[in-house]
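Exercise 7.
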Amino acid sequence: MFAADSGMMLHAPSRRRTVVEHADGGVDGVLATSIGNGEDLGPAVRHSFESGKPEALLHQLRNIVRKKEVEIEELCKLHYEDFIVAVDELRGVLVDADELKSMLSSENLRLQEVASALLLRLEELLELYLIKKNVTEALQTLKTLDMIERNYIQNTPLKPLRKVIEKQIPALKLHIEKKVCSEFNDWLVHIRSAAKEIGQLAIGQASSARQKEEEKRARRREAEEQSRTGVGDVACALDIEQIDEDSMLEFDLTPVYRAHHIHTCLGIEEKFRDYYYKNRLMQLNLDLQISSAQPFLESHQPFFAQIAGFFIVEDRVRRTAGGLLSDSQVEAIWETATAKMTSVLEDQFSRTDTASHLLLIKDFVTLLGATLTRHGYRVAPLLEVLDSSRDKYHELLLSECWKQISDILASDSFEQMVIKKEFEYNMNVLSFQLQSSDIMPAFPYIAPFSSSVPDVCRIVRSFIEDSVNYLSYGGHINFYEVVKKYLDKLVIGVLNEALLNMIHTGNLGVSQAMQIAANIAVLEGSCDLFLWQAAQLCSVPLRLVERPHAGLTAKAVLKASQNAAYNALVNVIDSKLDEYLALMNGINWTADEAPENANDYIHEVVVYLDFLISTAQQILPAEALYKIGVGALSHISHSIVAAFLTESLKRFTLNAVIGIGNDLKTLEAFADERFQSTGLRELKKDRSFRDCLVEARQLVNLLVSNQPENFMNPVIREKNYGALDYKKVASICEKFKDAPDRLFGSLSSRNTKQDARKKSMDMLKRRLKDFS
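Solution. The predicted structure, written as tokens, is:
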């Protein structure tokens, strides 16, 4: 059985054969051989169960399975490495095939490109050979004709033949002239149809050159800014690019050269020059006609491109056609075109009512001017038209800005702007340098201004860019001062006026009025940024902008408007305070007993003052907060004094004065606490919040004094009653009654102290009357 098993395993790989042979020992080997030979294992299984030892058979079978698993694993390991290598090689072949395919495709495209160009050149070469052949034959014919006419016709022996020749020569010349003129007329039609494309290509080149120049300026501005701030390395590069415009603008003048030469040979050069000039002038007059079927905004580019193409062709003819056109003729044609173009521009500009439309036309006209200047044409009249329209352009621009800014202010709630994301902070704060610190704040960030401030800054920045765009490439070399003038107009005549309208007619609340005042302060500080942006776009060195007295006039105007905003705020506050102070009408001015606490109205006043100071502390700077507090408390003090002077109050008693004194104590306590808690004490002002109540306090002190007549003592008056006015004191004292009048009041016993106070008060009244 072993021999047979070895014979049957000859077809297996050597490694597998070794494993099997190693396993062929004992019963396991016999069983494995039987399984390998495909023999029936039924008898062996039946025998194991009959002998009562099936476990032994199962154990043998498990051993065989384990051995076969080892064989399989060894076989897989052996061929796995080969398989991986084969897959890698196949993958490499696929990559190489793709690269080869790509290379072949690329080479094919390159070959086709080169071949296409060569085929075009070949076609051009063949055409030139044909032209050369035709020209040679034409010249030879002309020379032959000339020789016959000059040398041989007189020597012709036969008179009839001579007559025939003399008759045919003019006919031949006429035929040649007609043939050449026919070709030239075809060229006239072709060149007119191609002129617009020639002009568009040339203007496109001028636009590309301008864009490159603007990129250079941007790099210079960036380098200057880096140099100014000391950040980054400044790199300088010399960018030189030569463009042969004649090679870029390809058009065929061969028919012109041919016709000119043949007419010269025929002795009628002047006739052709006149013919050329008249026909081209006629074409120009057609080109200068404006179509009424299309708006000028849509037709101005093809209109000017056609004219540009015409004069580019004429410049080439003048330079290369051997005197076909004189300089004076070209100048006359150009003056005709200039007069028509300036007339068209003036008419169209007078009709245009949109700033962006004017800017589009202006940009294209300056490109036209740059294009034709390169060809030697004088474009100053065109630039003068643009310059004369700059005021109208800026008026339209200012009108648009007025509407935009008015809409922005009208839609603003004048609440502090809440910025939730970093990109919003960059867009609304950093881009306009409105940050109070270089450290990125935590979000949400509450800005000291409302949403209208960055929106207005965007409008101003756009205005500066539009102004610079219009004034660039015109007749002015240094137009920074012009931009600055119009920028002042924008800030003063538009932004400031819109803010004043909002202040005076906006029906604002207290917090809104505060926010407008804070906004104006921010915008005033932004004037330096606006001027810096204008200088940067005008390529003006920043050192010139930073000189003393080089700023915007608008900055001082906004400062004045900020004061107007504060005044409006004070009026709003005073009006609101008057509503609460009107509650003083409920005071019992002839009370029998002195109150122990303050009057009810004063609590309403204190609540409002607390709201006012808290709101102002969040929105306004410390100086403005101080002004608001001083104004409000001064108004309350004046109002309390005025309450004693009102005509409706006929008399009041000491008890009522004591109640007012309690009111003042409440106000003074509030004033002291807020002056301390808001940090205003650090401003080192000469006048505290308490000092604002001094007039009312001195009046109350005078009325409750045991010796009011001391008011007339200059020393005491200066020390204790310096804030009081003689006339006001006289009027108030006339209404003062020490005790309410009662029936038989004169018979009642009086306190000695009261009697003394009354006598002193009567003395004061008499002396005040004498003084007045």
